């Protein structure tokens, strides 16, 4: 076992070598080496992203040292970008780091296409105006506005993060994020309601009248279910149980077939009745996906995901091949059975899954050739994985910051818990626009309360929401924080944000959409798509 | 103190002062521990004691950022302290490379802290710290992570649920015959390789019997015979051990275990009437085969997966790994025994040679029995009980812990909540919080009253203790210690014995139950007679109050039981409704369907605690959660149970 595999063992259990590879190809830009920014990078450098870059024009202050673990006493007065790069870099020798003690605006002035080299841009300690500008650049792949080359365009994930006192927030924006490996708890697809011929034959191969109790006690529960389901259908016009009473009746039938309480295989069958009585269908989310315009209008630039989804659609529509069902996942759960019958059952499902993959592959190949793409440019492995998880595919289309600022989906935010925080966050931006500083940053923080509350009122009015949605106590609290960061909240929010960036970078698991808010004072948090 | 300006404006100067004065104990300096220590130091905590018995391993470095390569094999506690001090030299950190269960860490020692924080990775230590904190009446912050999931809560005697209020999953056990003679799944083969064969070859003669094996009822004649034959088999293998580290040793072990023994088993025809008989393997036949027979994986997959770690080895590769690892381990053991004749090599999932050996032998056994073979990567997880672990989750949980610490030090227990870091397809939230639960009236651990008692255990007898209790009208008592009966009205053999002669010494918990079923736990403190001012005992705390508390607790228990019967009754009447923990009725769809809408705060999306309170309300059966088509199964991450893990653990029930 090589040292790298051993070092990363505990995380490979979570996202596998494909996830690790994806992570290692990530290049993350951090704008401003704030406490939360450095905590995010720490959590990304440890598991081994490919590269990071820190851009920060500032020097290390006393406040930085108080809240940022990666800026020590020796750093005082030095370049923040350089010191953070040095101390963070020590965390993992496999990760390459870069830094620039410059303002992001001046960098972009010199090199408008600067952002295009990054997979993710994390912005902290920036104004709303800058956030909007950076987010818009990331949205189009980081290309210079005058030099837009749609062919070279790639997704750049934009992440905005802020912590103030005991309060933290994060926002993710990327036009489209597609996921095949969403890591559902269970991909077993047993087809008890619509067994394919080989499966029926397997079920019929068991002798339920056998004298041998050991053999009887080892009939796999899948065979038991298929057998009793078959009998049920024969007396119910070919229909499976649909009402609760009917399902209970089927359970009772199976229970009646037990010879002793030790027949765990029958128990397994009984406890799977409800799930097995759900007709095998295509989930509505997947139906929507195959009807997506991106599926319809494929071109040579289409992501593999969309070519595969189109192939899935064509496969499902060809009933002679698919019976109108998704490809079989091919995995079965553990069950009480003799080794050889378990292995046989496993191979029946695997073989069918393989056949389905082959059919999908044929469609993929013909799509590739019609798009003028090389045969085999989507690997067999990729097609297999796609088929296996085809019932669980996921596409997230985030709202852009621009959309949010002009028309926030305030209805998505729970009015009783985090809504006031969202309003205050936005009101603080308005306050900044008016005063050139954040609330509470002045000589006497209490002087800012009324002004900030006025900003709150204006915002609420513009959204058509009653003025009492935000209590003045909370406004007071935000002012008292004076835009200061404390380490513990930076660390907590940094943990949350880096976790989501890992989900995005590995293209595994479903990342949050689109805003996370947290208040440590009241242990309140929420995720919503504003 | 410019350094703490933001901290002061955020949490207030008085709390900053209280934090600086607080004495905190951190148990565990692993994944959560590193984050926690950093956060404590950066949050103005000045008096921190950290204890961990572990040393640093390469596989820690992907998240335990206070450690680096040059620290491998050093004490986690010491290195964590040094690294943290580099950032705040003013903090007073005491580090201990010790087991928290050692006797010197007494109830009194625990009482010396204002707050205890668990950052542990095993059930046993968690239970111990839980009990000590209850006895010492010190608040405990408990935490755990597994992959993207995590959990954090507060335990305070009589105010909240304790760690043991809800039963925990215990490790799975297997019948001896299944492991030794009739394996049918990969895990049976792995348990055999790790717990039987490995121990026999590289362990001490004494620790033969592994706890995971359960002896079957040997009334059955056949089973008794088989067990006897197995014992003889082990004996024969031990004889081969004499030739360890000599030419041909690997071949002799191989042929004994995979040929002779299998051959014998195969000859027992009765056993194979309903099972596929095993096929013996011969060492030289496999190695001399010109053709390399693939294992369970076919050729195409074999090519696709390049990592040797992640694919199943061919039979010949397996035999090669077997003999190489056996050789290396034998040499290692021989060297160890030169200085310590009792030395043994322990299986360690992160020790490549031990893992190689277990993978190879488990797969050879699987091959013999026609069972699916596994890759080393998979064997590692199955043999090592590996829980995935990453920095991100630990950072979130440690951050939540310090938030709770602020509240506890600020005397605001009521503001504390239990929080879960969750993940689910249908659940937009990341962090879900709920109020701290009340103690479970049935709990055997926290529903006791603890009293410290000082006496000279060398001269004090059990009778003296009984007399003392009589003085408080605690009569007809039954006295136990760690499950052994010391005294009861029908067993007074020990009455005249001294406490010390019964190993009732300093730090021991003596359980006293009276005729009214009131239970008092006496924490023994051994002192010299002359320090007691002529008394035989000195009790810290109020006995009357403890008895009154016990009487109330018994009443609560009766009330709870009555309520439960009532609930069970309702449940029977309406089969279409599932009882949730809070006794609200919800229809199936509400429980298992996707959470509608995308907003909602933690409080409004209560975690179903049904699985956490499994005695009172068993976890929802798979059956009852099923919803959606067979391919789109309802996914409920909120069904968490606490088991042992890399750090607490949260396991998602399917
Ligand atoms: Zn308890």
Automatic annotation (TrEMBL), chain A:
CC per GO annotation: cytoplasm
UniProt-listed GO biological process terms: protein neddylation
Domain of life: Eukaryota
GO molecular function, one term: NEDD8 activating enzyme activity
Cited InterPro entries: APP-BP1, ThiF/MoeB/HesA, ThiF_NAD_FAD-bd, Ubiquitin-activating_enz
Family: Belongs to the ubiquitin-activating E1 family. ULA1 subfamily.
Name of the featured protein: NEDD8-activating enzyme E1 regulatory subunit
Source species: Dissophora globulifera
Lineage start: Eukaryota, Fungi, Fungi incertae sedis, Mucoromycota, Mortierellomycotina
From TrEMBL, chain B:
Gene3D superfamilies: Ubiquitin activating enzymes (Uba3). Chain: B, domain 2, Ubiquitin-activating enzyme E1, inactive adenylation domain, subdomain 1, Ubiquitin-like 2 activating enzyme e1b. Chain: B, domain 3
UniProt: Zn(2+) binding residues: 162, 165, 443, 446
Record's subcellular location: Nucleus
Basic and acidic residues biased stretches: 581-591
Pathway: Protein modification; protein sumoylation
GO biological process terms on file: protein sumoylation
Annotated region (Disordered), positions in chain: 548-638
Catalytic residues (UniProt): 177 (glycyl thioester intermediate)
Sequence ranges assigned to domain Ubiquitin-activating enzyme SCCH in this UniProt record: 319-380
Positions contributing to ATP binding: 28-33, 52, 60-63, 76, 121-126
Keywords associated with the record: ATP-binding, Membrane, Metal-binding, Nucleotide-binding, Nucleus, Transferase, Transmembrane, Transmembrane helix, Ubl conjugation pathway, Zinc
Domain of life: Eukaryota
Domain THIF-type NAD/FAD binding fold: from-to ranges: 10-443
GO function terms (MF aspect): ATP binding; metal ion binding; SUMO activating enzyme activity; transferase activity
Cited InterPro entries: ThiF/MoeB/HesA, ThiF_NAD_FAD-bd, Ub-E1_IAD_1, Ub_act_enz_dom_a_sf, Uba2, UBA_E1_SCCH, Ubiquitin-activating_enz, UBQ-activ_enz_E1_Cys_AS
GO cellular component: cytoplasm; SUMO activating enzyme complex
One Pfam family of this chain: UBA_E1_SCCH
Subunit composition and interactions: Heterodimer.
Family statement drawn from the similarity comment of this UniProt entry: Belongs to the ubiquitin-activating E1 family.
Protein name, UniProt field: Ubiquitin-activating enzyme E1-like
Organism: Dissophora globulifera
Gene for this chain: UBA2
């Amino acid at each position: 076992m090589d040292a790298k595999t051993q070092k990363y063992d505990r995380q490979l259990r979570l996202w596998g070598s494909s996830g690790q590879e994806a992570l290692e190809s990530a290049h993350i830009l951090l704008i401003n080496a704030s406490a939360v920014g450095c905590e995010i990078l720490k959590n990304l450098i440890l598991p081994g992203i490919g590269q990071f870059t820190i851009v920060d024009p500032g020097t290390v202050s006393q406040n930085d040292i108080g809240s940022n673990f990666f800026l020590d006493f020796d750093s005082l007065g030095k370049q923040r970008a350089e010191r953070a790069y040095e101390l963070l870099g020590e965390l993992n020798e496999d990760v390459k780091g870069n830094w620039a003690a410059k303002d992001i605006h001046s960098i972009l002035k010199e090199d408008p296409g600067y952002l295009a080299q990054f997979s993710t841009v994390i912005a902290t300690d920036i104004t709303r105006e800058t956030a909007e500008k950076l987010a818009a650049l990331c949205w189009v792949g980081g290309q210079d506005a005058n030099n837009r080359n749609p062919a070279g365009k790639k997704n750049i994930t934009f992440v905005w993060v802020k912590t103030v006192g005991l309060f933290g927030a994060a926002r993710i924006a990327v036009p489209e994020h597609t996921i095949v490996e969403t890591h559902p708890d269970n991909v077993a697809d047993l087809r008890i309601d619509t067994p394919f011929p080989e499966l029926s034959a397997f079920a019929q191969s068991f002798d339920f009248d056998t004298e041998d109790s050991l053999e009887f006690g080892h009939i796999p529960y899948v065979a038991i279910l298929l057998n009793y389901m078959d009998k049920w259908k024969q007396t119910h016009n070919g229909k499976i149980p649909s009402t609760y009473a009917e399902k209970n009746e089927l359970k009772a039938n199976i229970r009646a077939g037990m010879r002793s309480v030790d027949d765990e295989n029958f128990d397994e069958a009984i406890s799977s009745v409800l799930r097995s009585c759900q007709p095998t269908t295509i989930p509505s989310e997947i139906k929507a996906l195959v009807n997506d315009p991106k599926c319809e209008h494929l071109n040579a630039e289409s992501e593999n995901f969309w070519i595969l989804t189109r192939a899935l659609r064509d496969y499902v529509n060809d009933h002679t091949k698919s019976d109108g069902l998704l490809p079989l996942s091919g995995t079965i759960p553990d069950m009480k059975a003799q080794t050889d019958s378990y292995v046989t059952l496993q191979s029946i499902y695997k073989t069918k899954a393989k056949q389905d993959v082959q059919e999908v592959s044929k469609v993929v190949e013909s799509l590739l050739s019609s798009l003028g793409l090389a045969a085999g440019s989507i690997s067999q492995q990729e097609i297999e994985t796609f088929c296996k998880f085809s019932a669980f595919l996921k596409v997230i289309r985030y709202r852009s910051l621009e959309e949010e600022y002009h028309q926030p989906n305030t209805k998505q935010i729970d009015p009783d818990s985090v809504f006031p925080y969202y309003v205050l966050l936005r009101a603080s931006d308005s306050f900044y626009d008016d005063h050139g500083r954040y609330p509470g940053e002045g000589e006497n923080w209490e002087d800012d309360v009324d002004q900030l509350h006025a900003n709150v009122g204006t915002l609420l009015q513009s959204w058509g929401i009653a003025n009492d949605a935000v209590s003045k106590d909370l406004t007071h609290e935000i002012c008292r924080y004076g835009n200061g960061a404390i380490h513990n909240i930076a660390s907590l929010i940094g943990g949350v944000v880096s976790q989501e960036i890992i989900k995005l970078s590995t293209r595994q698991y479903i990342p949050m959409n689109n805003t996370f808010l947290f208040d440590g004072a009241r242990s309140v948090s929420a995720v919503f798509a504003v | 103190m410019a350094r703490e300006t933001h901290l002061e404006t955020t949490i207030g100067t008085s709390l900053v002062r209280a934090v600086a004065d607080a004495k905190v104990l951190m148990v565990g300096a692993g994944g959560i521990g590193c984050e926690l220590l950093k956060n404590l130091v950066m949050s103005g905590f000045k008096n921190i004691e950290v204890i961990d018995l572990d040393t640093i391993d390469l596989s820690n470095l992907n998240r335990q950022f206070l450690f680096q390569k040059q620290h491998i094999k050093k004490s986690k506690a010491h290195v964590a302290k040094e690294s943290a001090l580099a950032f705040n030299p003013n903090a007073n950190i005491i580090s201990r490379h010790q087991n928290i269960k050692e006797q010197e860490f007494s109830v009194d020692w625990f009482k010396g802290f204002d707050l205890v924080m668990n950052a542990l990775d095993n059930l046993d230590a968690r239970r111990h710290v839980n009990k000590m904190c209850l006895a010492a009446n010190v608040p405990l912050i408990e935490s755990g992570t597994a992959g993207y999931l995590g959990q954090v809560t507060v335990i305070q005697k009589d105010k909240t649920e304790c760690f043991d209020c809800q039963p925990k999953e215990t490790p799975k056990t297997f019948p001896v015959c299944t492991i030794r003679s009739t394996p049918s799944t990969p895990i049976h083969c792995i348990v055999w390789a790790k717990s039987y064969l490995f121990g026999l070859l590289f362990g001490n003669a004494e620790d033969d019997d592994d706890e995971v094996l359960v002896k079957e009822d040997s009334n059955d004649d056949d089973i008794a015979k088989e067990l006897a034959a197995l014992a003889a088999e082990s004996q024969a293998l031990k004889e081969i051990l004499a030739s360890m580290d000599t030419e041909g040793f690997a071949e002799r072990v191989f042929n004994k275990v995979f040929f002779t023994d299998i051959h014998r088993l195969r000859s027992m025809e009765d056993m194979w009437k309903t099972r596929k008989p095993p096929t013996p393997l011969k060492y030289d036949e496999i190695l001399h085969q010109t053709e390399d027979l693939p294992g369970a994986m076919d050729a195409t997959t074999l090519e696709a997966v390049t990592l040797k770690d992640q694919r199943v080895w061919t039979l010949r590769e397996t035999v090669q790994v077997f003999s190489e690892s056996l050789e290396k381990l034998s040499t290692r053991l021989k060297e160890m025994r030169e200085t310590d004749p009792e030395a043994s090599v322990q299986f360690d999932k992160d020790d490549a040679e031990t893992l190689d050996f277990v993978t190879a032998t488990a797969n050879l056994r699987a091959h013999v029995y026609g069972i699916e073979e596994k890759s080393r990567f998979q064997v590692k997880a199955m043999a090592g009980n590996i829980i995935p672990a990453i920095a991100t989750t630990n950072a979130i949980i440690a951050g939540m812990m310090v938030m709770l610490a602020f509240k506890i030090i600020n005397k605001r227990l009521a503001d504390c909540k239990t929080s879960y870091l969750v993940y689910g397809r249908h659940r937009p939230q990341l962090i879900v919080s709920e109020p701290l639960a009340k103690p479970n009236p049935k709990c055997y651990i926290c529903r006791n009253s603890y009293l410290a008692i000082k006496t000279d255990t060398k001269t004090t007898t059990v009778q003296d203790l009984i007399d003392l209790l009589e003085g408080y009208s605690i009569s007809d008592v039954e006295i136990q210690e760690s499950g052994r009966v010391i005294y009861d009205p029908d067993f007074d053999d020990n009455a005249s014995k001294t406490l010390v002669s019964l190993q009732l010494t300093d730090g021991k918990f003596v359980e006293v139950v009276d005729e009214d079923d009131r239970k008092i736990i006496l924490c023994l403190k051994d002192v010299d007679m002359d320090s007691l001012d002529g008394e035989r005992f000195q009790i810290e705390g109020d006995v009357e109050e403890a008895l009154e508390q016990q009487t109330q607790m018994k009443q609560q228990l009766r009330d709870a039981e009555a309520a439960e019967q009532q609930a069970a009754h309702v449940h029977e009447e309406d089969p279409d409704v599932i009882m949730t923990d809070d006794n609200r009725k919800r229809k199936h769809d509400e429980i298992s369907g996707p959470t509608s809408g995308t907003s909602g705060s933690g409080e409004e999306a209560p975690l179903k605690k049904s699985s956490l309170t499994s005695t009172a309300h068993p976890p929802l059966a798979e059956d009852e959660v099923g919803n959606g088509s067979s391919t789109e199964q309802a996914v409920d991450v909120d069904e968490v149970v606490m088991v042992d893990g890399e750090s607490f653990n949260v396991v998602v029930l399917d």
